[in-house]
What we know:
This protein has 3 helices and 3 strands. The protein folds into 2 domains: 3-49, no CATH class; 77-153. The protein starts with a helix and ends with a helix. The protein is mostly helical. A hairpin with a 6-residue loop joins strand 1 (25-28) and strand 2.
Amino acid sequence: MKPIFRAGLIAVALVATGSASADVFKCTDPISGKVTYTNTKTGEKGCTTLQKEQSVTTVPAPAPRKATPSDFPRVDDNTQRSRDNDRRKILDSELESETQALAEAKKTLAEQQSIRNGDEKNYAKVLERLKPYQEQVELHERNIDAIKTEIGRLK
């Protein structure tokens, strides 16, 4: 647990369990800035008494999801099936074009790897020249993976 969060829990526990006459102190270390909460005042500077009327703040729970209203427009099954089929066709054509683009990018990369310029005696220069071609191959591979994931999500 993070120290600040733990200190907040301690403060809430002290306020919740303390009696009406118990004071809660917020102490801040002047050097490290660390904040602690306690029911006994220490000799440190930077300790202040929290007001008893001060409300305890909490993070509200997320609101429950509301059910779809009965009058919400719905799509009939045949229309949805048609839309799903259209989407599958589009994704299949995108997959085919990305596969072709990947093959072309790999071919271009292989061609560039076989070329050696006279000024590239240092291998780092070769890698620098090849980097855009390798990035293109990686981009097409990521696109293919994303399209396959989308196709896998279809019903």
